[in-house]
Amino acid sequence: MAQLSDILLLGDARLYERCSPVEVNEVLELEPVIEQMATLVLLFREKYGKGRAIAASQIGVMKRLVVLNIDRVVPLFNPSFEPNSSEMFEIWDDCMSFPQLLVKVKRFRSITFTFRDRDWKECRWLLEDDMAELMQHECDHLDGILSTQRAINSLSFKMLR
Length: 161
Ligand SMILES: [Zn+2]
Fold this sequence. Notes:
The chain has 161 residues and is an alpha+beta fold. The chain has helices at residues 31-48, 129-142, and strands at 53-55, 65-69, 73-83, 88-93, 101-108, 110-116, 122-128, 157-159. Strand 2 (65-69) and strand 3 form a beta hairpin.
């Protein structure tokens, strides 16, 4: 049974490690992990009223896998992105590994986001604004980078009650 305590919290060394690529023959064995991650997004959203995606490293599975769960469960294998322009915007970013802390970061406004789906087909999404921000955040997780490391300056932290 998935429970919120499965999610690693800020300070856990595994959150700062780089994840390894998923191989096509691992997709099937990752199904239970995908299900667990999808449930955790729902549980988190129930409790905190936010949360759309989670990276596998946030539950200690060091694979390049992100699960998006907004209106349906979408596993994203080996995701990456390219900015469409150099335009950036500032945003208060949140993270399931530190629910009470917001961090102000700069992200690209518009990206081309690429991943493999369950059928190992290469998919390409054009994303802007908050969805672009979300996927930049998740790709960072797979490289062992948290938004705390992208804080614009020492005033870029805000605690929630
Ligand atoms: Zn996060």
